Amino acid sequence: MFKPLLMFLLLSFFPLYSQYKVIIDTDPGIDDAVAILLAFQSPEIEVIGLTSTFGNHDIDVTTKNCQILLELAEKKIPIAKGFKGPLVIPKRPNPDFVHGRDGLGNLFLEPNQKEGNYEDADSFIIRSILENPKEITFIGLGPLTNLASALLKEPKIASLVKEVIVFAGAIYYPGNCNPLAEANVWSDPHAADIVFSSGLPLTTICLNASKKPQLTKQILNEIERANPKIGVFLNQINQFYIDFYLSQNPSLEGANIHDSLTIAYLLNKDLFSWVEGPICVVKEGIAEGATLMDTSSSNEFSPWNERPKVRACIDCKEKEVVALMVERLSSTS
Ligand code: BDR
Ligand code: CA
């Protein structure tokens, strides 16, 4: 009687502190870096580890970039090293033209700690979820290879993870790698298909939702002025990223923030709208990487029938999302 009352009172007075224990699986990546710092700047979130994956660069570089981010944010949490390529298909070329030849806007930074004794990412994911049943939120910002491998090795984690939020897919919306495929799914369609069919409590944020919110040079200057400790870095790495977006579409004001939307969704689901349905991933051919959702429960022989429903975010309140990001990234407390 006394204990629940005490818990209730504590939660009422300190509602913001470490509500979520989070693993971030990531391929930094400029928008990954923004998302990770956004999580670190959010008191509701306790990041218990970063798991690196190939994607925006080779695994050695994305793992090094994780270390750079931990040192910048002065966080002493583990990095677990992930897969160097997809489960079945050959690895795609690195998108240097989006994220730079170092994955972080061509600044060629070096961490103080050069090499670590890294646990494998899939083992770290399995161990963390089994040791903290129903407590871990998994955030996926890259190809879904590490999570798919963890599910293959220990299917029990599907029912023991609290929530999974990934940036992956495009629901009947133009892709950014081919006319239908989003980059994280296209980079490892087999892994994405395993994750989408696993029955995890899964939300995927899709390109449909990330098209609108933009990070502009003006906003980055504002963040830099308010919080130079991370703002200078954010401003520098994003120059390259924004220039890429503007070169693609001069009517834009800045760059799409993709990965940060997973953190914004975790913090405030009211900022998003979604559709729900089973998703099959196209694993080969001209539409490789397309995420096809059945929204109609078509017929009894449909391959979608066997699959669990996935929540796919297709829109967001972009002004509120950007305001949330600016508020958190500018905070020095
Ligand atoms: C996704 O692909 C990567 O380039 C970004 O980091 C993001 O995770 C956008 O499609
Ligand atoms: Ca990413």
Automatic annotation (TrEMBL):
Pfam families in UniProt: IU_nuc_hydro
Keyword Hydrolase annotated: yes
GO BP term, example: purine nucleoside catabolic process
UniProt entry keywords in alphabetical sequence: Glycosidase, Hydrolase
GO cellular component, one term: cytosol
Top-level taxon in the UniProt lineage: Bacteria
EC code: 3.2.2.1
Record-annotated Inosine/uridine-preferring nucleoside hydrolase domain positions: 22-321
Molecular-function GO term, any one: purine nucleosidase activity
InterPro entries: I/U_nuclsd_hydro_CS (IPR015910), Inosine/uridine_hydrolase_dom (IPR001910), IUNH (IPR023186), Ribo_hydro-like (IPR036452)
Keyword Hydrolase part of the UniProt annotation: yes
Protein name: Inosine/uridine-preferring nucleoside hydrolase
Organism: Candidatus Criblamydia sequanensis CRIB-18
